[in-house]
Amino acid sequence: MEPVSEAMASLSPFASNPLQTKDDVKNFLVALLDPLAAHTSPGGARIHLGHTATHYDEIAAQLEGFSRPIWGLASLLAGGAEYSGTHRWVSGLANGCDPSHPEFWGEMRDKDQRMVECSALGFAIAVAGKQLWDPLSAEQKTNVENWLSSMNNKAMPDTNWLWFRVFANLGLSRAGSAKFDAARMKADLDHLDTFYIGDGWSRDGPEGVVQLDYYSSSFAIQYSQLIYSKLMNEEDPVRCEEYRKRARFFAVDFVRYFDSEGRGIPFGRSLTYRFAMSSFWGALAFADVELPAPLTWGVVKGIQLRNLRYWTKQPGAYYIDGTLTIGFCYPNHNMTEAYNSPGSPYWCCESFIPLSLPETHPFWAAKEEPYPTSLLPKPVVALKHPLHIATNLGNHFYILSSGQQCSYPVKQSAAKYGKLAYSSAFGYSVPVGNLTLEELAGDSTLALSDDDGETWKCRRDTREARFEGPGEGWLRSMWYPWKGVEVETWLVPPTTDAPLWHLRIHRIKTGRPLLSAEGAWANYAQRQDGRHLDPVPEASEEFGTVGEAGTARAASRAGVSGIVDLSSQTPRTGVALRTDANSNLIFARAILPTLRGEHVTGDGNIWLVSAVFGLPSVEEAEGAPKGWITEWEKRPRIPAEIAAFMQ
């Protein structure tokens, strides 16, 4: 029986919503919008949801609280529905843009956070102008025009931000405003198109930037391209068709980042936007894209709705009043960025864009279909542009990763981009400190120390990443933690002979002694009664941990994760490491199977070979399926080409 404390903690204010119909999705959105009334300023222009700070000013943070929910509200209104609180946003838009009003948002400066929020406002005016623009007086419309258009002569970051100015001008265009700057919009679009690298993928920046995360898809670039392609098809047909073409290519890759239960694979930054991860699928419907095989509208609908369902069931994603927390599956400021205000998570409202579509649209008319595992030709696929290998063998959906890094300072960027693998079921962890391995929380990471364990370094800046080998092959890359130390890594995906394992092979060239700690997937750290996991024999399928020479494992209600040392030199010790609380994005209390080693300088070459095991529990189940120990007893083989190189 679930402990009372656990049962109380598992209550989500939205879990009872089945999210099967358009009305269900509408009800979810309304349930998110209603609690904001109590946090809205008298003039409606600011929504204050908490007291944590950002690198930008407090007024801009409260503007975020106002603007981001409008992604959902505008879609709801565009679909013909009504919302009783719409007047709050109409008043807020008028007052926030009025320089004489106490709630004025302030003049825009170069690279101002206010520019980001113009994206939602421009979209709202474009698709729901009747409800949000027409009620404004002539003077109020002039104020809005002046405020939105003021960004046209300001400097902007050379990133996806340029889309926000495109949307500001798009809104002005749809409002018939003389402030619409067609030349500025075209110049921004032309430059954004230089980010495109083929097969549907775009970088989040110019040549040299290696970021292809959710900003390249659901958060910004692909999402924005699809909206533009729908709204500007008559004015800019060639570009709009190109954007739809890109989306068709991209969708076939992007489906690999979601699992059969609706979870997206956590990777990269801004994950507090949560179900914005799946907004691309709704945008496909909004843009009426002709779907590429094997996708159908039933499949697309299923991916989108299962993702929303997953998030309705995460109690830690919401405060008791129904407002969103900052974090992922629970409030967690360790994983956030300096630009995450209490209103930031409402970027998730992008995913309500299907509400703009009629019930007769194929997205709503289609019967929801399961994840298309049987339709995808390969369970293991090399995705060349993001430098990922995606797999769903054994019903474990994850990516092996090399070659991405953030092009500017972002908190915990080594965890967000530099880990060796990312899983939809086990998530990833972020450090809460750097003086102990418990603080480091180095899941899917090779951590090294050259000061006897005082501090640790993990892969952050990956170099020379490439695919090698037959078939889908493997990933090979370099990392240089200190001068005089080189780490070369091969990441080998699972095979049908050992479907729950992947291989990591490291060659370390060093002129100094090092300590190493290599983590498997982090796992939920508690027993059924809520107490911490206890040690069990390696042959046992009971919930518990294994930590001995060359082996570490943890089994809990979330499934099984483990790591085995296959090195022929420098044997390592296994330990089930209880990481510090609030380090993993999914499990607030996590345990990390880890191999620890001591390495002296001999000829300067140290070879480490690790087999990593992962078997998530299935939806609503307690633990991995019975008989999993048979899979655990298997061991993957080193590919012959790599083995020959090692020799």
What are its keywords?
647 residues; alpha+beta; Beta-galactosidase, Chain A, domain 5; 2 domains; 8-stranded antiparallel β-sheet; 5-stranded antiparallel β-sheet; DUF2264_C
Overview of this protein structure:
This is DUF2264 domain-containing protein. With 647 residues, the chain is an alpha+beta fold. It folds into two domains: 4-37 and 71-80 and 158-365, no CATH class; 382-646, Beta-galactosidase, Chain A, domain 5 (Distorted Sandwich), CATH 2.70.98. It is 28% helix and 17% strand. The protein is built from 18 helices and 19 strands. The chain has helices at residues 4-9, 22-33, 58-67, 70-78, 86-96, 114-132, 138-149, 162-174, 182-192, 221-231, 237-254, 279-286, 297-312, 362-365, 413-417, 437-440, 628-632, 640-646, and strands at residues 196-198, 201-202, 380-383, 388-391, 398-401, 421-423, 446-449, 463-468, 474-482, 485-492, 501-510, 514-519, 523-524, 544-548, 551-556, 559-565, 573-578, 590-599, 605-616. The strands form four sheets. It has an eight-stranded antiparallel beta sheet, with no helix packed on it. Strands 7, 12, 13, 17 and 18 form a five-stranded antiparallel beta sheet that branches. The protein has a four-stranded antiparallel beta sheet with strand order 3-4-5-6, with no helix packed on it.
